[in-house]
Amino acid sequence: MLSAEARAADPAPVFAALGDRTRLSLLRKLSDGRRRSITALSADTSLTRQAVTKHLRVLEDAGLVTMSRVGRESHFAFRPEPILAVRSYLDEVSAQWDDALARLQSFVER
Asked: Taking the complete model, does pTM exceed 0.85, yes or no?
C-alpha cells in the first residue's frame, strides 16, 4: 500500500479506483460517514462478500477507505481527502487548459 504522501502526489490510483461502478456504489454507501461491514455493504447487491472485499481493497489501496476490525468483522469508512486532492489536481489541469485556450484564441485573433 502506498504512503499518504505518495497517494497525494499521484492521482492515478484514485482515478483508477473511481473508474468502476461497483466501487463508486460502495463509496456512495460509505459517504454518509457511517462505518459498515462487508456483510452490510454486500447485502443489497448480487456480489459475493469476496467480490466486495476485493473492491474494498482497491479503494483502501487508493486511500479512499479505511478498514478497522470490530471483533471478527472488518468495517470500512470513507476518507474524503484523496477526493479533495484529485479535485485540486483537476483544478490545476483545468487552469492550464484555460491558459492554453486563451493563448490559442489570442494567436488566432491576431
From this structure: no
Residues 6+ apart with CB under 8 A from 101: none
Residue with cell 466486495: 52
Q: Which of 43, 22, 39, 27 is nearest to 75 (CA)?
A: 39
Q: Give the amino acid at 75.
A: H
Contacts of 77 (CB under 8 A, 6+ apart): 30, 33, 34, 35, 36, 65, 66, 68
d(CA 49, CA 56): 10
C-alpha torsion sign, points 47, 26, 63, 85? positive
The full set of domains in the chain, from first to last, is: 4-108 (1.10.10.10)
Q: What is the DSSP letter of 20?
A: S
**Continuous H helices in the chain:** 4-9, 12-18, 21-30, 38-42, 49-61, 81-108
**Segment 15-32, tens digit of pLDDT:** 999 999 999 999 999 999
